[in-house]
Backbone:
């Protein structure tokens, strides 16, 4: 079972380059959006890691602190093949201080820490700041810079990246088996597989609308989300005010994270029904397992800057909201020989 293809919104790739030749070529820094209070049962740790995945570091952190794995949390998974800075949280009720400066190992170290009254939950981020280096670019520099200008002004498709589907899409196949009754004991893996299934249907909706040229327009029946991601509303008819706010990136059309509940209506709903018709068994099983949620079809790439290093290396820096993928930007620009977006 393969994830749906992700057609490009801005035209064919404008060249080739190499990504992630070394960890420093793909840097990610979490933006928490609030400051830990300095007191409480939960310890927030700012961890630098290189060449390690988030779940492995969380397990080592639990062993170091002498607590069950369930007492360690993080806001989001970060790429193994990267240099990343992210927050972890350890629940230590009744404990005093701990020698956190000693928590270091192969590819990771604690840089600072602070207490907080509440646990760090998944998705509890304002966003992520990215710094990428694309090496050995072979293509049209002027055309690539023009496309970057377009994306800065219009946003880009908010596809789930290949990381969501696992190696060669394996998480999607495991999701299908799980939803048909195969037992998965690990809560972590069950969550990964469920997310992969919902991502497949979302990407299918977005792919259909990209191919039709309506991924960045509000359609009758769309559920439109404010750019801060907090709330959304149903658009019956599309008036000039809505069109203006969508054009200014203040509102975004959304797609379904499939589950039980009501989706889009009207013309927008027709695209969702068409996508679901391509994944009928997955959609039916998801409706029994989860509630319907929404995700923007478009993401605003904020603070987008670029420059060139010799020989032929493109530097990119930008921020994205939590849950959006930097590889989606690369996908709209070039080919890398890797799975994108």
Residues:
């Amino acid at each position: 079972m393969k994830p749906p293809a992700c057609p490009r919104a801005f035209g064919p790739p404008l060249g080739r380059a190499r990504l992630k030749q070394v960890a420093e070529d793909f840097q990610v820094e979490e933006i928490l959006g609030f400051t830990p209070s300095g007191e409480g049962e939960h310890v927030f740790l700012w961890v630098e890691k290189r060449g390690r995945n988030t779940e492995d570091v969380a397990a080592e952190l639990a062993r170091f602190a002498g607590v069950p794995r369930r007492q360690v949390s993080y806001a989001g998974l970060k790429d193994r093949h990267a240099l990343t800075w992210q927050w972890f949280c350890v629940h230590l009720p009744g404990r005093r201080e701990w020698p956190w400066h000693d928590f270091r190992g192969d590819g990771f170290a604690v840089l600072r820490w602070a207490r907080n009254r509440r646990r760090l939950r998944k998705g509890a981020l304002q966003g992520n700041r990215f710094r990428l280096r694309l090496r050995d670019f072979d293509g049209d520099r002027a055309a690539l810079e023009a496309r970057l200008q377009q994306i800065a002004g219009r946003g880009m498709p908010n596809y789930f990246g290949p990381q969501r589907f696992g190696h060669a899409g394996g998480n999607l196949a495991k999701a299908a088996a799980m939803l048909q009754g195969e037992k998965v004991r690990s809560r972590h893996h069950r969550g990964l597989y469920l997310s992969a299934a919902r991502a497949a249907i979302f990407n299918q909706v977005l792919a259909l609308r990209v191919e039709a040229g309506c991924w960045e327009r509000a359609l009758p029946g769309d559920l439109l989300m404010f750019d801060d991601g907090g709330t959304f509303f149903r658009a019956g008819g599309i008036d000039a005010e809505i069109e203006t706010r969508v054009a200014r990136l203040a509102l975004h059309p959304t797609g379904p994270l499939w589950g039980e509940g009501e989706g889009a209506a009207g013309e927008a709903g027709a695209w969702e029904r068409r996508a679901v018709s391509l994944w009928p068994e997955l959609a039916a099983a998801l409706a029994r397992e989860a509630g319907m949620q929404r995700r923007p079809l478009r993401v605003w790439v904020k603070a987008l800057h670029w420059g060139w290093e010799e020989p032929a290396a493109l530097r990119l820096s930008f921020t994205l909201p939590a849950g959006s993928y930097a590889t989606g930007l690369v996908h709209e620009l070039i080919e890398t020989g890797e799975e994108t977006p």
In short: The first helix runs from residue 54 to 65. Residues 34-116 form a domain with the Pseudouridine synthase fold (CATH 3.30.2350.20). The mean pLDDT is 94.
